[in-house]
Structure formats: structure tokens, C-alpha cells
Amino acid sequence: MATIEVRDLARAYGPVQAVDGISFSVGDGEIFALLGPNGAGKTTTVEILEGYRTRDTGAVSVLGMDPATGGSAYRARIGVVLQSAGFEEEFTVRELVRLQTRLYPRGHDPDELITLVGLAGKSRSRVKHLSGGQRRRLDLALGLAGAPELLFLDEPTTGFDPAARHHAWQLITGLRELGTTILLTTHYLEEAQRLADRVAVMRDGRLIAVGAPEQLRAGSDLPTVIGFDLPPGVPVADLPLLSAAPSVTHRRIRVESRDPQSDTWRLTGWARDHGLDLPDLMVAPPTLEEVYLALTEEAAR
Ligand SMILES: Nc1ncnc2c1ncn2[C@@H]1O[C@H](COP(=O)(O)OP(=O)(O)OP(=O)(O)O)[C@@H](O)[C@H]1O
Questions:
Q1: pTM, to two decimals
Q2: Residue 38: CB within 6 Å of ligand 1?
Q3: Which atom from ligand 1 is nearest to the alpha carbon of 45?
Q4: Under DSSP, is residue 101 helix (H, G, I), strand (E, B) or coil?
Q5: Boundary of a domain, candidates 185, 215, 245
Q6: I want to staple 181 with a disulfide (CB 3.0 to 4.6 A). Which of 3, 133, 153, 252 is the partner?
């Protein structure tokens, strides 16, 4: 059975239809990312699933329960990492994590958890002395305190430096390996591409695409970019005919290919026949970010 089942979910605030009849499911152990521009309805959807907001219509089942009526038994099974949780600034990291783990019947060991999120060196530091990125790690530790079966992660790496972001991604991937199901919201498309088994793109309260990042990238009609350096002494006019005209910047060739397989074939065959190299050859399919932008712009039109 799916961990999350949503059917025809709707919620309005007065005249604003924030969520407009969406359906999706999230499998056991899956990382599912909910994407969409500001105001798309993501927070409303997630808060309904967390049991913190009511729905107008539709059916919702999470871990086999209805979040609207699950009460504390439901909340003991989920973890929530919000964007900006307020902390008790005078507590140390260890004190705060220990307090939180004690709230749950099967809470994590506090020291293991602190190590897991990479705060072992800051265990005895007061919260007021933590950097922004370290606070987000603390947020994550607190969300994991109850060893949840399902974790809601709201923009987990906002404000992280690149190394901290990579560490967080490893951590999140590790949680999946432990069997935790994760519902992620993020505005970082690279994060969704790295982490999510499937993504759903939301706009104006509706889902406009659902699928694995690779599926959405492969299924889009955006071009794949083929790039290489023009071999010395070869004029552009000598290149074989490709699905799109090449552009040249400082002898770097760029082809926005509609047929990357045939174009790559033609190019590499041509280079072999002429005994040439194609220096720094690169074949780049559209990124999830490019696909996302095309989808949301299309929906806006
Ligand atoms: N409590 C509220 N009262 C009235 N309108 C609300 C309320 N909460 C959200 N809305 C409206 O509902 C719509 C969806 O908001 P929501 O916060 O769910 O979007 P979001 O996708 O999470 O956006 P963001 O990426 O900016 O966090 C928006 O038009 C918003 O203004």
C-alpha cells in the first residue's frame, strides 16, 4: 500500500482556490518532491498531509490514517522539518535534541542523531552560536527525533554552502536507505533531480506533471545540447548536416539537437572518417530545471 494517497484534494481560502482537485500517491520508501512556483499550493497540500490544515473536499490517507483525525498517534509517526523553526537560543544542541527525542516512544539516540546530521563538533554549543546552515542541520535532527516513518522536508538546504548541501543530500539519501519515506518541497531543481525518485510539478493549485526526473527530462521536447571544440584547421562549413544549425563561439560548437542520437552518430562517424578528434565533446540533455521552467511557463500561458 502507498504511504500517501491523495484523491481529488481541494482547499480554498475565500475566493482563492489554493488546491484545486489534485491526486497523487507516494510509495513506501520513496522520495517524492513537490515543486512549483510561489503560491502554487504546495504548503497548503503539505500541511493538509501533516494534519495541520483542514481540507474542503477529497480523500487523504497517510500511513493508513486520515491526518485530519489521526491526532497524536498520527503525529508520533511523522517527522516535520519546517523552513524556520524557532529555537530556544540558550539551550545547547545536545540538550535540545535530547528533549525532543524524549517526546517520542521510539525516539532516536540523541548523540547518534547529532552525529548523523554532522553536528557532533557542536553538540555542546548553544543554539544562539550556530550558523544558519548549522541551524538547518539542527532542524533536521529535531524532525528526525521520533525516528519517523514519513518525513516532511520543507526546503531542507536553503542557506547551505555547496559542501553542506552535498552532506545534506547524502544524509537524505541515507534516510531513504533506512526505509524512511520523504516528501520534499524545494525550489532547488538540482536538489529534486538528485534526490527525488519522482517529482510533481504544481501550478495554480493543480498538478501539471508527475514522474521520475529522468522521465520528465526525456519526455520533454526541449533540445539536447551537443558541444565540442572545432578541430584545428577545420571550417564550420565542413561539419556534417545535423538536425539543427550549429552556432560557434571562439571555435566552440553548440548544436541544439532535436535528434541527439543521430546527430552524435553523424558527428563521431564524420570525425572518425577524417581522422579528427572532437575535443571536449559533451552531450547534455535538458536539466530538470529547464523542463520545469518550460512546464510552468506553458501552464502560465
Ligand atoms: N491562510 C491563508 N489565507 C488566505 N490565503 C492563503 C493562506 N495560505 C495560503 N493562501 C493562498 O493560497 C495560495 C497557495 O499558497 P501556498 O502557501 O499553499 O503556496 P506555496 O506553493 O507553498 O508557495 P511558496 O512556494 O511561496 O511557499 C496562495 O495564493 C496563497 O496566497
A1: 0.88
A2: yes
A3: 18
A4: helix
A5: 215
A6: 3
